[in-house]
Structure formats: C-alpha cells, structure tokens
C-alpha cells in the first residue's frame, strides 16, 4: 500500500513493465519545495502545485501538526509528498533539508522561498534579537535556500526559483523596518540571481503580495481590514490562493521567458 503523508513508496514487487512505467513517470514528474508551507500562502501554494501534478515537499519549523495534516490531505489525492522540518535561518539545517528532498524525489524543479516572520515596532524600540529574527528568516533564509538549490539546478540546466517579498519590500512601511528591509533585500537578490542563473536556463522571479488574509495579519482588527480593503482598488483583501495562482503561473512554461521580475499580487494596493 502507499504510505500516506510520506513520499509515495511502493512496498513490494511490481512487474517489470510497471516498474518501467513508474520510471518514465518519475522522469516526467516535476517537483517543488515550498518553504513555510504549513499554513497561509505556503499551504495554498502546496495545494495548487499538488493539483497541477507536482510532487511537493512541505517545509515547516514549528507547526508540525498543521504540516502533517496538509501532507495527509495532499497524499489522499495521490500526490507524492514529503514533510521536512528545518529552520531556514540555519544553513546547516537548510543543507540537510535539501539532501532529504533530493533523496526522496531525485530532483528539484521549483524552489519557492516563502518562509517569513514579522515584528512590528518603532525602529528605536526594536531589539537586536528581533531584527536578527526577521532578517535571518526573511532574507538569510532565502539566500541559504537559493544557494542550496544552485548547483543542482545548474547541473541540470533548468529550474525555477520563486521568492516571496511583500508590498512593504517595494514601498516600505512604518513600524515594519526590519520586515521592509528584508523583503526589499529579497527583491534585490531575485534580480541579481536572475542575471547570474539566466545563462544556465534557470529563471528567478518574485511575487510581492499586498494585504493577504493570513495569520501574519491576524493582529489587524476588523476595522483595520475594512480600511485596507477600501484602500485596495479591487475592494477586497487578498487570499492566499491569489498568490498561489501567481506562483503557479511563474512556474509554468507560460513564464519561460520571464525572469528577474517582481509581480505584485496586491489588488492595486495601495491606491
């Protein structure tokens, strides 16, 4: 039987022709690693890519139960799925995560750097620890993941790297200095890496979400959300699925000639 919640591994023998068919399918199958995919935008992306036939690696750090539940959900649809625990701000753990993914799937076609944290405070009140926590996950984590995927993708002369920034990385936000700085850095890294990896046939693009209905914005009041929706030309708060669809597009063949770009998924916010 297939093992739910783990990479689909057949227990037992199969006839040679079926083994050859699975080998062919493995060569045709595409794989994606989504960091920060236990919830929010990352979980929506994992679902979207699973529905499109990808084998999906779900990375989490603290939210093990939600990550395992998502893995069981996706495995129940026939998706090949792997859960990996790692702190993306730790290069050693990132290296082990990539080893696990490649051991399980044999290849990595799409890397989505989505893991992120935020701390709201006036800059004068922000501690060194909070600054490092935000930049360590939101910027260093992207660097470590891109570096870990680099040689594998270059050796195959193909692959796509997608980063997740923010509207605040484009414009900056009061009381969000660390987050804005880290997300702006993600945009700079994306553009630089697109130039560096382009000759190897690898594209690197970024999405910059606006106000999205996720736990990261859970501190906002109903009135706050109403005001933000009113400040958005499309008149609503974004959903994680809105961002997931943009990521799926950038990972598709339709985006093969697009690289070094920042795609705003923001409903026009701020007007």
Structure description:
The model is unreliable at 1-24 (pLDDT under 50). The protein is α/β, with parallel strands linked by helices. It is built from 9 helices and 7 strands. The protein has helices at 16-28, 40-51, 64-75, 91-105, 128-156, 167-171, 177-197, 222-230, 240-251; strands at residues 31-34, 55-60, 81-85, 110-113, 159-164, 202-209, 262-265. The chain has a 7-stranded parallel β-sheet with strand order 3-2-1-4-5-6-7, with helices on both faces. The protein is globular and about 50 Å long. It has a single domain (16-265), classed as NAD(P)-binding Rossmann-like Domain (Rossmann fold), CATH 3.40.50.
* Adjacency order of strands in the biggest sheet: 3-2-1-4-5-6-7
The CATH architecture category equals: 3-Layer(aba) Sandwich
Number of helices: 9
Q: CATH homologous superfamily - what is it?
A: NAD(P)-binding Rossmann-like Domain
Query: Beta-strand percentage?
Result: 5-15%
| Helix and strand composition category | alpha/beta
| Topology order in helix (H) and strand (E) letters | HEHEHEHEHEHHEHHE
Q: How many structural domains does the protein architecture include?
A: 1
| CATH fold-type name | Rossmann fold
| Total count of strands | 7
Globally, the shape reads globular
Mean pLDDT: 91
Q: How much helicity do the residues have?
A: 40-55%
Spans of at least 5 consecutive residues whose pLDDT stays below 50 are: 1-24
Instruction: Name the CATH class.
Output: Alpha Beta
The largest sheet is: 7 strands, parallel
Task: Kindly report how far apart the N and C termini lie.
Answer: 53 Å
Cα-based radius of gyration, to the nearest Å: 19 Å
